[in-house]
Structures are given as C-alpha cells and as structure tokens.
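[Meeting: bench + compute handoff]

Bench side (C.D.) handed over the final construct sequence. Compute side (W.E.) agreed to return the predicted structure before the next meeting so the bench team could plan truncations. Sequence as handed over:
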Amino acid sequence: MNQKPIESLKGIGEKTGKLFQKIGVDTIEDLLEYYPRAYDTYEDPSPIAEIKPDSVMTVAGMLERTPDVKRYSRVQVVTAVLRDGSGTMQLIWYNMPYLHATLKAGMRAVFRGKVIKKSGRLIMEQPEVYTAEAYGEIIHSMQPVYGQTKGLSNKTIVRAQKQALSARLIIRDYLPADLRRKHELAEYNFAIEHIHFPSDRKELLFARKTGL
C-alpha cells in the first residue's frame, strides 16, 4: 500500500499528482515522510479592539452586510465589515468572488488571517472562514504547515496526509519495548501520525524521539 502512487488517494488526479512530484512526493510513503516545516496553533478569538497589526489573529463576530465585490485591473477584491461587542474591522479577499454568494449580512462566523494596518485602519487579509463549531474542533491544536509549490495548497497536502495515514500499511517496530521505555522513544507508527498531527508541543517532541 505504501508504495502506491500518490494518485491512488481520493481527489488526487494526474494534474495534482504532478504538483506533488514537484515537491518530491511520488508515492504514499513519500507523502508520509514529507514532514511539516512548521505548525500553526489555533488560538482563542480575540476581541476586535485588541487586534494587533503584522500578526495572524482570529476574530469572531457578525458581518454587517453582504460583501462587496470590485474589480481593479485583473484583481477582484471582496470586502466585508465584521462587528463584535468591541468594535468593527474590515476583511478583504483577493480573487475570491464566490465569497459574495456564501457570506451574507448577519452571518456569524470565525475569521483567521494576517492583520495589516493601512491608512490608519486595521484590515484582515485573506482570512480563512469557519463556523463556530468547526473552529471549536481545531482550537488550541497544532496544525501542520508543509512546504508548498504553486498550485498546491497546504489544505490539499493536509487532506492527502490524513488519507495516507488512514490507508497506510502499519510498519512493525522491531525495537524492544523495554528499550523503548528506557530511552523514552516513541513507537514508529505512533510517531509518524503525531509528527504530522500532534495535539500539543509535548506530544510532538515525544514523537520526534524516534529519530524521524
């Protein structure tokens, strides 16, 4: 199973498979050994009044109106205004016009993105959008960030990794259990899963102690 081509995973066709090849991933085994370069920790939403520029932050609130869509040359810009109990802030997306149909006035959601300061105003650029329930499932968790190439997003790699971990052939770890306990070494199959998706930093550090 582990030697099957990356295209054997659901949702990965020839085009996406070639993108994976650009990052050195041809098989499921290659994907499992394609480790995150960093991790994102999803924090509690902050009040808008406490948002700071030049950082990735999370806010929750209600959209004041349906987003506007404007075209500037070849760029389509979607803008919206989010309100919570402490104030308002502008949200902006580039070349994502479909959001006009999915984000509506009065909608409550959680938004996470980089905050910049422009013309004296704080603006959140290209925020990800979550329902409160969906964000609650990942809050405080460590989400992997992989090396990417143009056309291959982190989300696509994450989805593929989850499939690969579910479909992989379990590899027997021949290290004696007493020796593993003595040196506090993680079992290989535990390590491969929790290096990609650790629940916290302590678990990540333990998983890395196999020498992966």
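W.E. noted at the follow-up: The domain at 43-138 is CATH 2.40.50.140 (OB fold (Dihydrolipoamide Acetyltransferase, E2P)). C.D. will use this when planning the next construct.
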